[in-house]
Specification:
The complex is a heterodimer of chains A (443) and B (173). Chain A is 26% helix and 25% strand. Chain A has 443 residues and is of the alpha+beta class. In chain A, the strands form five sheets. In chain A, strands 13, 14, 15, 16, 17, 18, 19, 20 and 22 form a nine-stranded antiparallel β-sheet that branches. A four-stranded antiparallel β-sheet of chain A has the order 6-5-4-7, with no helix packed on it. Chain B has helices at residues 12-30, 34-38, 71-82, and strands at 41-53, 62-69, 95-107, 113-126, 131-146, 149-159. The chains are: A alpha+beta (443), B alpha+beta (173).
């Protein structure tokens, strides 16, 4: 049996990260306890449950939850497990219900989680307080920009405090018109035999993989651009890291570049941005070619390269299922005010590139599975992963960067990735029981 | 009998021809001859793949697209898969075996246009990752007669999956 990995996984001085961080089931169990049950976790978007009774089933940290719009129009999140003997109240992905009735013995609840009846109330001891059997509510639930976040730790800091500097960027992508963003259909979901952090690292700032992993779509895009007579060149850009462990990479179009099919945003929508966003946010979006980022721990976002004036905005969850496997959920968004034709094109291009069968995704997944398979053995575990191109740049923030967070140049180093790993490592240590962390919900 | 079937089934000779086309087409995909396969789709093709959203049984089945492509987008997909330098997902090649059965072929809305519904089973062995997946689904095609063969004008592949297993899909169905 292999020894349980303990202690720090990140060698900050020498640029190494131990491979067990990406393969070990012990690490996964610690992550559930120290990170996923204590952090603000993305549960879904308000536009997924527009009408009273609409619900989706999701996972919040280690536990299954129902995210529901109640008859009163409130958004609630409830542990998806009957208070009697634990059966799931909702066993599908989505639905609409006024009441959740347990299929096992018939306990039934209103869609806000209040117990209606156990069916056998008469047989309970006298003076039983039945309100103790309401469905377990997620103790902290907050929304920002239509995004629903939950946390099992009732003592967690506010969502705004947790998001910190990344909030300014999220608003620029997910709350930039008066109507806000809406999802264009249910999430794509796929299972991958790779660790969730591989996804988070890939999105927070892995510019180095693009030309090799994605030689296919990149080459074919260049061929098309040459044929249609424009350039797809970008210019040197920023990696941004925030104190809260979040980060993103901003890539800009080269100035003065003729890019008739790659104008950055749809002009009709840009007018609406002016109403909703601050001038510096509009400045950030101006000439933006691509932005990819990650909200700690595992919520990634991307605003894709424009294609004929359409830009897909995508949210992505890397939901861990073991030390070396995850389920990916991916949603495509568009501005509510956009035309149906615009939304349809965004959806089709979004799926083509970044969905469950995306031409970018299929190559990423193959290589992530490969890395996981090759790393999950005691021999490989002796040789930690390299993050060395972060080291010369860790203390070289861009002095005149005007937007929130710390910015680094060039954008193709591993600063944001290494900062993510260091933040993760600190969370794994600092929340450890017996140090300064209180157990979640008295556990 | 299938209550959905309200169209006129094709005659036996035509049925055999369609069956032969489906087998030939599957063989092209099995041996990764994507460009040759692509020469059998129409310029106005609609190519879609769906998975399921599981809802309570009384709310009905919800299919939703994971791919919805026209000739241009499908062509890009085909080019990527065809060139070993442009694909990681299919280099080294997966080992494929496609089974196309339960063929139901009906006359379509126009002369020389046919509705063809089939069951599909795809065995995919990814040797580089020691991974085997079996994708089952229903396929609904519109085929058009072109010269002595057929071209695919529309294809909807309803995969019997909720969470797509085996990573992101680089498979053409």
């Amino acid at each position: 049996m292999r020894p349980t990995p303990t202690g720090s996984f990140v060698d900050a001085e020498n640029g190494f990260v131990r491979r067990e961080a990406f393969t070990s089931d012990d690490v996964y169990r610690t992550e559930l306890d120290q990170i996923f049950d204590r952090s603000w976790i993305y549960l879904g978007h308000e536009s997924e449950i527009p009408a009273p009774g609409d619900y989706v089933t999701r996972r919040l940290g280690s536990a299954p939850v129902i995210v529901v719009r109640t008859d009163d129009g409130e958004v609630r999140a409830l542990l998806n497990s009957c208070r009697h003997r634990g059966t799931k109240l909702c066993r599908g992905d989505a639905g609409r219900a006024a009441n959740f009735v347990c299929p096992y013995h018939g306990w039934s609840y209103r869609n806000n989680g209040e117990l209606v009846t156990t069916t056998f109330n008469d047989h309970f001891p006298e003076n039983t307080d039945f309100s103790q059997f309401n469905l377990v509510p997620v103790p902290r639930l907050e929304r920002r920009y239509g995004m629903i976040f939950g946390c099992w730790d009732s003592g967690v800091i506010s969502l705004d405090e947790y998001l910190g500097d990344v909030s300014w960027y999220l608003k620029s992508f997910f709350d930039r018109t008066p109507g806000g963003m809406e999802i264009l259909g249910p999430p794509h979901r796929w299972a991958v035999d790779s660790n969730w952090k591989v996804g988070a690292l890939n999105f927070i700032g892995d510019s180095q993989h693009v030309a090799t992993t994605h030689a296919g779509p990149i080459t074919l895009d260049r061929v098309r651009a040459a044929k249609e007579g424009f350039s797809v060149a970008g210019q040197d850009s920023f990696q941004v890291v925030t104190d809260e462990g979040h980060g993103c990479t901003l890539t800009y179009l080269a100035p003065g570049m003729p890019a008739p099919n790659y104008e950055t945003h749809n002009p009709e929508l840009q007018q609406l941005y002016d109403e909703k966003l601050a001038p510096d946010q509009i400045g950030m979006l101006h000439n933006l070619r691509v932005c990819v980022g990650n909200v700690f721990p595992h919520l990634s976002f991307i605003e894709t390269q424009a294609d004929r004036g359409q830009k897909a905005v995508i949210l992505r969850l890397w939901q861990p299922t073991s030390g070396k496997s995850m389920e990916v959920l991916s949603w495509v968004f568009a501005e509510k005010e956009a035309s149906d034709e615009y939304k349809d094109n965004v959806l089709k291009k979004g799926f083509h590139n970044f969905g469950a069968a995306g031409v970018f995704e299929q190559d990423d997944m193959e290589l992530w599975i490969s890395a996981t398979d090759a790393s999950d053995n005691p021999i490989a575990a002796q040789f930690p992963y390299s993050f060395h191109t972060a080291l010369p740049y860790m203390n070289t923030t861009v002095a005149d960067y005007e937007w929130p967070g710390r910015a680094y140049r060039p954008s193709n180093t591993e600063v944001a990735q290494f900062e993510f790993m260091r933040h993760w490592d600190r969370q794994m240590q600092s929340n450890a029981a017996g140090q300064n962390g209180e157990p979640v919900n008295g556990r | 009998m299938d209550g959905e079937r309200i169209r006129e089934p094709v005659e036996t000779d035509l049925y055999v021809e369609i069956q032969r086309f489906l087998a030939d087409e599957a063989a092209l995909l099995d041996r990764h001859a994507y460009r040759e396969w692509f020469s059998f789709v129409t310029t106005d093709i609609s190519y879609r793949i769906t998975t399921h959203v599981v809802r309570p049984a009384d709310e009905g089945t919800q299919h939703h697209e994971i791919i919805d492509e026209n000739n241009e987008l499908l062509g890009l997909r085909v080019e990527q898969l065809s060139d070993p330098k442009l694909t990681r997902a299919e280099n080294p090649r997966s080992l494929y075996r496609r089974f196309v059965t339960n063929v139901r072929a009906d006359h379509g809305d126009y002369p020389d246009s046919f509705f063809v519904a089939t069951n599909l089973l795809v065995y995919k062995n990814r040797p580089s990752n020691r991974d085997v997946q079996i994708y089952a689904g229903e396929r609904r095609d519109v085929l058009r007669r072109v010269d002595r063969t057929f071209h695919i004008a529309s294809r909807v592949v309803r995969l019997d999956q909720t969470v797509l297993l085996g990573g992101a899909l680089g498979t053409v169905f």
